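Task: complex structure prediction.
Instruction: return structure tokens for all chains below.
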Amino acid sequence: MVWLRREDHEDRELRALCPWGLPSRSSGGRRLPEAEDPLRTAFQRDRDRILHATAFRRLQHKTQVMAAFEGDHFRSRMTHSLEVAQMARSVARALRCNDDLAEAIALAHDLGHPPFGHVGEEALDEAMHGHGGFRHNAQGARIVDRLEDRYGHGLGLNLTLAVRRSLLKGRIPDGFPLSPDLESRSPVPVEANLVDLCDKVAYLSHDVDDGLRAGLFTEHEAAELRLWQQARSAAGSDNRQRVVSEVASLLLHDLVESADRALTGAAPGGPPPRLQHGPSMAVAANELLEFLRSRYYRAPRVLEVMRDGAARIGRLFAALLQDPARLPDGARRRVDQDGLPRVVCDHIAGMTDRYLLKATN
Ligand code: MG
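Output:
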């Protein structure tokens, strides 16, 4: 017999993972207990549920930085999430952490983003002032726990606790409605920390590529950056694609080496070590981030589109609050339990950029 059953995958995990990797047998379980899958581990199953979620398909038409309608070759939230998943898998595997868990977290890490990026997020947070606020990380947990109601049990995708906890990084607004079992913020698995770092590697490298493609800065200007210089000499070429791909490789290799040192030096049984880039790569990465902030994320051409989107979000929020009959049936059914402002917020946060533009024309 050549096929591997779930139990075989689980046994392989126990043999292969380093002391910090989280085995799927320690996933923390699901809110609604389910029979195990005969072929897939709990984390592989979580990954597949995320991939098949409506919220995941919507990422295709959500802005990363350049709005989708500006060109077919810019990253969307979906291509960004796929790049993060690919990097997270490689890095987790190299460090003998659980690559299935890392992949599941990576695919889900941006599910809660509203249309029009961080400016859209601020607009919704402002609209929800006094009603629990809005933040994409918390919304991601809300989507997988409640809004993505495919199975009719009211518990969303019913993912494992380890994946659900891993989505809650950063600040959660006071009063944001989370599932009660997520309120205590216990330590997240190291795989969540790795995904977070790979998220940054992915956007630093693909945004330098997209910013050049959009003509918002030149290769000559990028060549002032330490990381670009290192990448060019590692690539042994001025070819843009090769340099960009070297930027990602340099960041990932540094990440694996410094995370390896942290994991090797940490006492098993204690709290998981915090993983980060080595000091000199952290400086170089930060220089690139500052460059992208001023030349790309805050470029007038980018901000103009984002601010128009944010203004539309504000207007649509007010209009739906006035006239809830315009909400779709599924959303209206949640009003009794969640309150009208939260339902309006969920509805708008779920929209793609183009759907929001259509709804506000
Ligand atoms: Mg991201």
